[in-house]
Amino acid sequence: MERLGWRSGVVLGLVSAVGVAAFGWPLLASRKSDLVGHSADAPWLFALLLPLLLAVVVAQLSEGERGLDAKAVAMLGVLAAAGAALRPLGAGTAGLEPMFFLMVLAGRVLGPALGFVLGALTLFASGLLTGGVGPWLPFQMLAMGWVCLGAGLLPGATSLRGRREQVLLAGYGAVSAVAYGTAMNLQGWPYLSGTSTAVSFVPGDPLPANLARFAIYCLTTSLGWDLPRAALTAVLCLTVGGPLLRTLRRATRRAAFAAPVSFDRS
User: Fold this and answer.
1) Is residue 131 a contact partner of residue 22, using CB atoms and an 8 Å limit?
2) For a surface tag, which of 96, 129, 132, 265 has the fewest beta carbons within 10 Å of its beta carbon?
3) Would you call 230 exposed, middle or buried from its count of C-beta atoms within 10 A (0-12, 13-18, 19+)?
């Protein structure tokens, strides 16, 4: 697992702060605000997100002995391509998305910094692959980046192995699958303010009142997709998680993650 250096931590903190602001600012809008969707701010968020992802990679490359090499960066690209290829297999079918379990396991092995980059790049590549490019894409990139980041921050990265680690990842995978759906609901829900329903966002209302409506909205709309995604992620982590974790760790060792350079004088 790639440890998180201070440079990477600062950049991840910055990009996460930008993401929280992008998701949450409509909740602070006044009654006179004209909320028409993310068509205006999404391009700016996307333009800001790409250099920040590059900054995370550069920060990891500059971490000295703990940093990356070219083979590790190449492995990141391979995993992003694999995740993008998995996404169309279940997207739109009752929320069943096998890509999630790969992202959780890869985030666990790669660590928080590379994991965040992997999650964001995977959603970007899958958006290009499936034609799912729109105002929602940078928000999907951020949400999946956080899923992988959280997996990299789970305890026992160097000591916990076997069935206990699989159970930990299965539980995290289930929770993060629901959290991802909730975050994406927040991306679009405030723009239903003109529909005048019991679960619509009301600009200018107290935050607790709007959050209560949002909770009802999630329960009545997306939970039927989020729970199957969570169940599939947990089942895959428990059934095929062990062999895949060993494969990923073997690949990272061969990619010389954090391996010091030595010369043979003989």
Assistant:
1) no
2) 265
3) buried
